[in-house]
Amino acid sequence: VDNLRARFGDAFDTAMESLELAVGASPSWDHQAFLAGKLTPVFFGSGVNNFGVMEVLDALVDMSPPPGPRTSTLQVNKQPVVKTVEPADKGFSGVVFKVQANMDANHRDRIAFVRVASGRYTPGMKLRVQRTGKDMRPTSVVTFMSQRREAVEEAYAGDIIGFTIHGGVQLGDTITDGAALQFTGLPFFAPEMFMTVVLKNPLRTKQLQQGLAQLGEEGAIQVFKPDAGGNMLLGAIGQLQFEVVQHRLKAEYDADIRLEACQYTGARWITADTPAELREFENAYVLRMAHDAAGTLAYLCTSPYDVRLAQERFPKIHFHPLREHAGLSLHNS
Can you tell me the distance from the alpha carbon of 278 to that of 273, in angstroms, rounded to the nearest whole number? Predict the structure, then answer.
């Protein structure tokens, strides 16, 4: 310590004070808490100066957990069928945790990133998208290392592979070799901010619709189409989401838009025990009803009081502040 202080002077004392503050303000390391998602390690370093980079990479190798079991909750006759899928299970299954459009600007491609949950993937496999029940046989499946792509020869539980797609796959979709499974755990939270989309050039309507559909499927922002007609609405948790989507629409789809404030400040996804009860609610709030990018019915509100009033008026309607990306509504408000 004395040698380091003599070599670096005041910089050493400053570093030790910062280290003492960081250690004192943080809980002690608990690997089990980390595996449970209750603790996050923080690393200090500099990529520009190549300081601490190897330590971070080594820690990722040493600390990262192996693939674990996933729970499938499939709705059958409106009843959940729960099943645990182990990584060692022979049947292939995976979940789409990210969809990214226009990764290659020259080809306008879309990549569905799939985390393999069980089994083994090999080229040419016939797979099924659980949400739609449609089969697919991906012709281009790749892995990524920075901007470099490599064709996948095989993949196992824990691996991440990218399917080049042209539609039909959304964020949260479960893909299997035919087994009826539905993984959950990717929630959509009800937006707290809304903007109205105004297209500057009406001749670009097709491009706008395509862009909003794809960005909505990505989860970049929540897109709502009012049932009563009118301009599309964007819902977000923070202002930055609006700015990012506005930029991407112009840069990737040549759809220049203006965002205008609107009266809505929240949304709740709506379900009911019977179709008749749902129709009655929709008829009472025609101007407040909308469908999101996944086609899920939502009630738009201007204040929390709106929701409470609607709940009191229609006690049999279920108001959900979040839903699964797979389309399964969860948790009543």
Answer: 8
Percent of residues in the chain assigned helix, strand, coil, to nearest 5: 30, 35, 40
The H or E element that residue 175 is part of is strand 174-176
Which residues does 221 contact at the CB level (< 8 Å), separation at least 6?
Answer: 215, 234, 235, 236, 241, 242, 244, 245
Lowest mean pLDDT among 68-82, 108-122, 277-291: 68-82
Tell me whether residue 210 is exposed, middle or buried, using C-beta atoms within 10 angstroms of its C-beta: 0 to 12, 13 to 18, 19 or more: middle
pTM of the model: 0.76
Does position 178 have pLDDT exceeding 60, yes or no? yes
Tell whether the model's pLDDT for residue 107 goes beyond 70.
no
Domains and CATH numbers, the chain: 2-63 (no CATH), 70-176 (3.40.50.300), 187-330 (3.30.70.3280)
One-letter amino acid identity for 331?
H
What three-state secondary structure class fits 185?
Answer: coil
